[in-house]
């Protein structure tokens, strides 16, 4: 069999069903006389791209057993496969092989290892690998920066961002996007503004980078600067659903509920297809503005017009919509007609409980509280709402029993706190 034909067959095998892949793969290795890694790397990469990470790792194992050289490409593809598997064991075995075989100095493998540990929420291991890479690049720094951001290790992320130039690493669009997300997480508007200024000076295509613009919108929105967020949104050369959804979130987060509805309508006229997050924003806004019919229409249009299946969060918004309007009966009908009541999140039962508290509907409120506590037994907010409902209805004995139950579980009402940012 020719080299070219074997390579073509290798790629074809990656499209086999997963049930037949291992058997076909083993037969291929048994009959193959090739020892060059390229066809096998194609096989390995193809399995990863087609969503068969375990078969990809089996390919790596068979390459090793059959004496096929394992190169940088094979190791990087295998680490990508490990990112798709819940267990970190496979990735750690490959890491051990990397160290033993002398590949530890490769910046490509180092970047793949940082990415693997980052996506496996093993941030400390990712940082250790990054420190051990002799010649770092921006790709591996960005992987670690993203890991710090996802893990809410804001201080570590800012420190890495600060020292990147010391390693002769240039900031790119992704670096700035993650750095802005970190500033948003810290509500650090002064620092975020400095990063924005750096973006303006160094990134020529900022107006076309959706993720960078979305990070800027999110930063200004979380810091209450709605006008600045709107300015960033307006400067976008092309606004896709990500930017529209980001701006909807800014309006909603800052109480500009009428602007949410206005922008959503404009989004539809621009033929931008809304996603599930956009519908959460607009249905919630309808609830806050008392537009029950409009909110219900938007909810129904999800499946009817856009083929979107409402999630528990969408049902929670609809329940909240009716509860705010004092329509407890309709709110209960929504819960009762949910396709899978077991999937009703705590937001659904919390909204129903809050409305029962406002209107003194004790029986339904107790039922909602019981279902909410089944989902999160240690949620103090549910206990507080239930206590408030009892107090409003003069049920003091029930309050005493409730407080005793909280003490037995070691629960205390959260103490209010405020954060104040000081610029020196």
From TrEMBL:
<dbReference type="Pfam" id="PF20431">
    <property type="entry name" value="E_motif"/>
</dbReference>
<feature type="repeat" description="PPR">
    <location>
        <begin position="379"/>
        <end position="413"/>
    </location>
</feature>
<keyword id="KW-0677">Repeat</keyword>
<dbReference type="GO" id="GO:0003723">
    <property type="term" value="F:RNA binding"/>
</dbReference>
<feature type="repeat" description="PPR">
    <location>
        <begin position="240"/>
        <end position="274"/>
    </location>
</feature>
<protein>
    <submittedName>
        <fullName>Pentatricopeptide repeat-containing protein</fullName>
    </submittedName>
</protein>
<dbReference type="InterPro" id="IPR011990">
    <property type="entry name" value="TPR-like_helical_dom_sf"/>
</dbReference>
<dbReference type="InterPro" id="IPR046848">
    <property type="entry name" value="E_motif"/>
</dbReference>
<feature type="repeat" description="PPR">
    <location>
        <begin position="311"/>
        <end position="341"/>
    </location>
</feature>
<dbReference type="Pfam" id="PF13041">
    <property type="entry name" value="PPR_2"/>
</dbReference>
<dbReference type="Pfam" id="PF01535">
    <property type="entry name" value="PPR"/>
</dbReference>
<dbReference type="Pfam" id="PF12854">
    <property type="entry name" value="PPR_1"/>
</dbReference>
<dbReference type="InterPro" id="IPR046960">
    <property type="entry name" value="PPR_At4g14850-like_plant"/>
</dbReference>
<dbReference type="GO" id="GO:0009451">
    <property type="term" value="P:RNA modification"/>
</dbReference>
<dbReference type="InterPro" id="IPR002885">
    <property type="entry name" value="PPR_rpt"/>
</dbReference>
